[in-house]
Amino acid sequence: MEKPNIKKNDKLELTIEDLSYEGKGVAKVDDFTLFVDNALPGEVVNAVILKVGKSYGFAKALDIVKKSPDRVENIDNVYVRTGIAPLSHLKYSEQLKFKQKQLQIDFQKARLDIDVNETLGMEDPFHYRNKAQVPVRQINGKLTSGFYRRHSHDLVPMEDYLIQDPKIDAEIKRVRDILRKYNVRGFEESKNKGQIRTIMVRRAYYTGQMMVVLVSRVRDISHYKEITADIMANPEIKSLYLNINSKTTNVILGRDMMLLAGSAYIDDEILGHTYRISPRSFYQVNPTQTQRLYKLAVDKAELTGKETVVDAYSGIGTIGLSLADKAKHVTGIEMVADAVNDAKQNAEINGIENADFIVGKTETVLNQWAKDKKKVDVLMVDPPRKGLDNSLIDSINNIKPKRIVYISCNPATLARDLKLLSDTYEIGDATPVDMFPMTNHIESVTKLTRK
Ligand SMILES: C[S@@+](CC[C@H](N)C(=O)[O-])C[C@H]1O[C@@H](n2cnc3c(N)ncnc32)[C@H](O)[C@@H]1O
What we know:
The chain has 10 helices and 21 strands. It is α/β, with parallel strands linked by helices. Strands 8-7-6-9-10-11-12 form a 7-stranded mixed β-sheet, covered by helices on one side. Strands 17-16-15-18-19-21-20 form a 7-stranded mixed β-sheet, with helices on both faces. Helix 2 packs parallel to helix 10 (411-421). Bound molecules: S-adenosylmethionine. The site of S-adenosylmethionine has 19 residues, from helix 6, strand 16 and helix 8.
């Protein structure tokens, strides 16, 4: 493909043909692809070129000459620009279709013939997140919280995050003001100076309990006793931690986690069970949609009470414990030790006796099970974005579970893995469940049945 004669800062009119998986408008100049921020299919925009690469480039819409009927008019551009809610300029009904289509595209690319159902959306697709991790920086002499501009580490100051529980937004602001009161400094990334890098807040949807984690570059924070007392003055804060992360890294939490006050965990409920959540444990961020996701996944497992089930990538045990009353036995496998401790406690708290939990990598544990000729009837997998490890596919083919329920947060790796399993498994329809409204993230559930 010929690179057209365009360069950074050029301005030109573009016609938007499609929406990329990241939610950017796709335009062509000759045959050259440009990904355009804040532009929707069918729109004509005046754009400025941000970057021209070898095979594609990036641009930003400055004004819209012809608007899409699917554009949400009154949304603040800051949400699209910062990446907290990069699809918030697209009508919600269209976001749901976009997610269904993305799954179809990834299946087609992998030459898989799989029906994709309509995306199960939310009635109120805002303010759903039960967890925030907001970056903190020292800006104009003040500790400031906000969100990164997309694809950068430039902080845009923000107080209303649109998709987070408003009580979390209020708590971030309150904590920020307490830190300012005691002259604590925000992180200065370019100089590797300053103190607070991130404020993390979790709020349990059902119990209202909150956990605050202050992530600091340094251990010493003057007035930490006063800061602790001020933060704990809100009776909803059940747990306050200081985490130390002195590394140059994008990973949010460092190794040292110190409880400053309150309990080591908070409690929440899903589908009638109580769960304890530690700061490092994975916990689904959309509480109402989690119940729909789990119900769907458990339905697809078609349990009769006689099956041995593995809940792989089990986090704090929520999927396994949600189906334990319909199975003979459940084993959860999870690599984060704190999460496994939570899972064991969660089984006990809920009086569930037919579930156990193992610390380890799913691929390593199931490889050993294959060698030991252990039997599994149903395998639930809920891996992180990178999907299943290649070696796990071999173990699955040795263990031969009758059914697999694949919960995925990344259509591309889902399609790759389903293709690898399609010789030995019949692949049923896939259902996207919108766990992340206003963003381009796509969660889905697919059932596989042994041929
Ligand atoms: C998407 S979360 C799902 C957690 C849980 N099923 C839930 O619904 O809350 C993925 C989990 O897999 C864990 N994990 C990542 N790689 C793993 C691996 N190779 N083996 C086992 N667990 C892994 C992560 O720590 C995380 O808890």
